[in-house]
Amino acid sequence: MPSTDAFLHSLDSAPAGLSLGQLLALHPDVPRRTAQRRFGQMVASGQLQTQGAGRSRRYLKPASLAAAQQLADIVPQSADSRDILAYIEQPLTERKPVGCQADFLLAYQPNQTWYLPEGLRRQLHRMGRTTPAHAPAGTYSRAMLGVYEMTRVELLRDLYVWAYERSTQEYLAIRQERSEPDPLRLAWRDLIKTSIRRAVQHPEQDPLQPIQEAVAHEVPESDRDSVLALITEELHRLHEGVLARYGLRPSEWLAWRARQTWAPSP
Question: What does each C-alpha distance from 61 to 16, 94, 254 come to in angstroms?
């Protein structure tokens, strides 16, 4: 009689589990009542889990059941999607073999022939610009198998809708967390940029001198100290990655840096 490990091994290639009849077909030397008793013991010990009842009952390894339930809990599914997933989760031996659709391939012309209708393509393109995150491993593959094996897109559609809605929620959360921009920095952003550009383009001068002159000439006395502090801070934080913001070339920045004893090393 097969050992417990032999029964469990039979389920390795069946993520959706196997029915009692399917398991008995794999182990024909095991009497039906003996198998029922053994499976009952394995369920009681946590080695197996069951899904469904009566003749539709299937025996699964716990990890398989957990993965299927995780996908259902995370990604909302329509009835059509659940139907596709139930089919895809069956063992390969239970699914109808499919091959390439020769007519489609022979008639295909790049950028002129499409498998999906135009409206659905636009919808999927719009929703597909965001990547599904935190979905169970194999989620996207299951959706693509539904398209490939069944020529049905409902599960793929539900997946993209979920990803789009999740992306929208994350964007709103980020916006709420972000602090309001500094009004002083916004009001004097042009002066900040031009002052830093002039200071860097004249490395022979004390960098603070032209900045102080510009601030004294253009900024009201009540804001001068704050604006001067902002420009000085930006100058100290200047690095190669933000040069375009100030209209500077890397060669100008390097020449200026070489003359500044306080400037950080690259």
Answer: 9, 18, 63
Could you tell me which of 182, 170, 265, 177 has the C-alpha nearest to residue 230?
A: 182
Which range scores top for mean pLDDT: 6-20, 122-136, 177-191, 235-249? 235-249
Q: Name the β-bridge partners of 58.
A: 19, 51
Q: Which helix (H) or strand (E) holds 4?
A: helix 4-10
Cα separation, 257 vs 265, in Å, equals 8
For the chain, give every domain's residue range.
4-61, 75-177, 183-259
CA distance 252 to 247: 10
Q: Is the pLDDT of residue 4 over 60?
A: no
Enter the pTM of the model.
Answer: 0.34
Specify the 3-state DSSP secondary structure of 52.
coil
| Longest CA span, the chain | 98
For 4-61, CATH gives 1.10.10.10
pLDDT band at 176 (very low <50, low <70, confident <90, very high): low
